[in-house]
Design a protein that fits this description.
By secondary structure, this protein is of the alpha/beta class. It folds into 2 domains: 171 residues, no CATH class; 229 residues, 3-Layer(aba) Sandwich (Rossmann fold), CATH 3.40.50. The protein is built from 17 helices and 9 strands. α5 runs antiparallel to α14. It starts with a helix and ends with a strand.
């Protein structure tokens, strides 16, 4: 009886399960079509359809996760030289991302443009300049006729985006503020005049706070800045602004521009870049009554095109007997020769950057859009699109810089507790978000977002 009852119960349960299954099938989405064989023309289309099918019916996984999967699939297709498949994926990505959405959409939009540019450069000979700003910001909104004029001037757009970057993010200000404090502490007990060799001074926004601190000394020393750059007009205007500011402080000040060849657009001579920098250092005037400070903030990574020659440059700087060398760089490895590794590193790094901007700026911030689409957009385009001598953004992590500095004969100088307090105060006052964090490792400072280190600053002697 027990066996008979058990069989009857089992048969009843099977019937009930079949009825339930039929009933549930009416509520489920239709199954995706069977996949075509791998390697066929329809296989990629099926993958895209599958992701779209999952997006349509998933209530738990955000669409951005699937779009990131598509980004990785596109990079994989490019790595396999399957540019037709990669182009099909970028079409889907472009239709599902926007520079006006949340941080994920904006990030995917920037990387999609970079991947599309890489595909175009493969299909057509590279232009004179691989990353025209107009291409990067073709959707950038204009609020005035002057902005429309700026959009036709790549240099002006870059300048504007850099100044916005300096205002709305802590990254540049953190690097410059910490470097200034290291310089001030290195020359604190000295009565000699001060000479700063600044690599790539740009607009000189780093120096007014340091000039103010020097002017407060009794008596204030003379300050001389030798500034490198590739645009003589920008160098002169920067010198004029700093001279006027020094005059307003009653500070004795001299400014010397050191023009370096602009090899950005000259592919045939990019390999001589480090040689040119080394050779031009012979024009730097060193006076016996001056303390020399060398400032390398977010610059040296461009010279990693030739690591051996960069080490020679560092030895040349060491032979100039500086009292302090300040070094700031991105904490990322975008110098990997393998495209996929470089792509994955860049995607993770700029995800943290875009997330930090999302948390600290309002959704309609035009300055944020300018920084993301122009400044960071150009960096992403360079890292993702360019290969060989065409690539400029060659960031490496602190451990790599530490090794090169020690090989060149430098030793690390601890940054002070006051410098740390000052950097923390900067974050609290100007960028009030709990997502930013500061760490001290190997006597150097690291600024990060959500435990992801983004920038390092160190001091050397």
């Amino acid at each position: 009886m027990l066996g008979s009852s058990s069989c009857s119960q089992h048969h009843h349960q099977e019937q009930q399960q079949q009825e339930d299954q039929v009933h549930l099938q009416t509520d489920l989405p239709p199954p995706p079509p069977p996949p075509p064989p791998p390697g066929t023309a329809g296989h990629l289309h099926h993958q895209i359809q599958q992701i779209q099918h999952q997006e349509r019916w998933s209530s738990y996984t955000p669409p951005s996760i699937y779009l990131r999967q598509l980004l990785s699939s596109c990079a994989q297709s490019i790595s396999n030289s399957d540019f037709a498949a990669a182009h099909s994926i970028t079409t889907v990505l472009a239709a599902n991302s926007s520079p006006y959405g949340d941080s994920s959409e904006r990030l995917i939009h920037s990387f999609t443009k970079a991947l599309s540019q890489r595909i175009r450069l493969h299909l057509h000979p590279p232009p004179t300049t691989p990353f025209p700003i107009k291409t990067i910001v073709h959707n950038f909104p204009n609020n005035s006729s002057s902005n429309h004029h700026h959009q036709n001037d790549d240099l002006t757009i870059l300048q504007s985006s850099y100044l916005s970057l300096n205002q709305i993010t802590p990254f540049v200000r953190f690097c410059q503020l910490t470097a200034n404090q290291a310089i001030l502490e290195a020359i604190h007990a000295q009565n000699d005049d001060i000479h700063i060799l600044d690599f790539d001074i740009m607009h000189g926004v780093q120096w007014p706070p340091l000039m103010q601190a020097i002017a407060d000394r009794h008596p204030p020393p003379t300050l001389r800045i030798t500034a490198t750059g590739t645009n003589l007009d920008i160098l002169r205007r920067t010198g004029d602004r700093l001279s006027k500011f020094a005059h307003s402080l009653g500070l004795r000040f001299r400014f010397f521009p050191l023009l370096l060849p602009d090899q950005t657009n000259n592919v045939n001579h990019r390999h001589t870049l480090v040689d040119d920098v080394i050779n031009h250092l012979s024009a730097v005037l060193l006076l016996p009554n001056e303390i020399l400070a060398v400032n390398c903030v977010l610059y040296l990574h461009r010279l990693l095109i030739d690591r051996d020659k960069l080490c020679l440059l560092l030895r040349k700087i060491k032979s100039m007997n500086p009292r302090v060398v300040t070094l700031a760089e991105k904490e990322a490895n975008h110098n990997q020769p393998i495209f996929l590794s470089r792509f994955d590193e860049a995607l993770n790094y700029y995800t943290a950057i875009f997330d930090s901007l999302e948390a600290t700026l309002p959704p309609n911030s035009r300055e944020r859009m300018e920084v993301e689409q122009v400044w960071f957009g150009r960096e992403i385009a360079d890292i993702v699109t360019a290969e060989g001598v065409m690539r400029r953004e060659r960031h490496e992590r602190f451990l790599s810089w530490e090794m090169m500095m020690r090989i060149a004969g430098f030793r690390n100088v601890s940054l002070s507790p006051f410098a740390l307090s000052q950097a923390k105060l900067l974050l609290r006052l100007h960028y009030p978000s709990e997502g930013y964090n500061l760490e001290v490792v190997n006597d150097s400072f690291f600024l990060g977002w959500q435990n992801r280190p983004l920038f390092s600053v160190s001091s050397w002697y």
